[in-house]
Amino acid sequence: MMRCGKRRCRCKDELPQLHGPYIQWARTVEGKTVTKLLTADQLARYQPWLDNARRLRNLATELDTLTIQAVDQTEGWAS
Ligand SMILES: [Zn+2]
Q1: What is the distance in A from the centroid of ligand 1 to the CA of 28?
Q2: How far is ligand 1, taken at its centre, from the CA of residue 26, in Å?
Q3: Which of 1, 10, 31, 67 is deepest in the core (most CB within 10 A)?
Q4: Is residue 70 assigned to a domain?
Q5: How far is the CA of 71 from the centre of ligand 1 (A)?
Q6: From the CA of 41, how far away is ligand 1's center (Å)?
């Protein structure tokens, strides 16, 4: 649910009626967050790709953490 860019709109009222629900797809491009709105159909179309990309990011983070732990322990740097 979100507000739009119009100055006068039901989403800006005292009791706001927000637009949506929309599915917001946020990603980072060159250090900036880029968001796009997806319909349910579009999300269904790309869900497997998005799931795979998330899994890959999580695995990369896990590998990074394990590497740091291994180096710290092996080199006696762990405090
Ligand atoms: Zn609005």
Answers
A1: 26
A2: 21
A3: 10
A4: yes
A5: 53
A6: 23
pLDDT number for residue 79: 66
Domain count, the chain: 2
Mean pLDDT, range 18-29, rounded to an integer: 89
Question: Is residue 79 domain-resident?
Answer: no
Same domain, 51 and 62: yes
Spacing, Cα 15 to ligand 1 middle (Å)? 12
Per the CB < 8 A criterion, the answer to whether 10 and 16 are in contact is yes
Q: What's the CA angle centered on 45, arms 18 and 55, to 5 degrees?
A: 95
